[in-house]
Amino acid sequence: MSKFDYPRLPRREIIGVLSESQIASVSDADLLNPTPDFVSSLYTHILIHIGCLQEEDFGLVEFADL
């Protein structure tokens, strides 16, 4: 059994954090049935938010780069 743990957040809290941080606007349905495009876009927005990517690179990100 792993000694590592991570916080488990309810979907509502995840949606709230993403919205309050102005990272992304997502719905409950987005998290329940995510599409590949949604996941790629969400990861890109998170990387831009934490400073790993520049906003002008948004359209140029390949999934393999994530």
TrEMBL record:
Gene Ontology CC terms, in alphabetical order: Ndc80 complex
Coiled-coil annotated residue ranges, if any: none
Superkingdom of this protein's organism: Eukaryota
Keywords: Cell cycle, Cell division, Centromere, Chromosome, Coiled coil, Mitosis
Gene Ontology annotations of biological process type: cell division
Primary site of residence: nucleus
Domain spans labelled Kinetochore protein Nuf2 N-terminal: 4-58
Pfam families (alphabetical): Nuf2
Subcellular location: Chromosome, Centromere
Family: Belongs to the NUF2 family.
Descriptive protein name: Kinetochore protein Nuf2 N-terminal domain-containing protein
Species this chain originates from: Centaurea solstitialis
Classification of source organism: Eukaryota, Viridiplantae, Streptophyta, Embryophyta, Tracheophyta
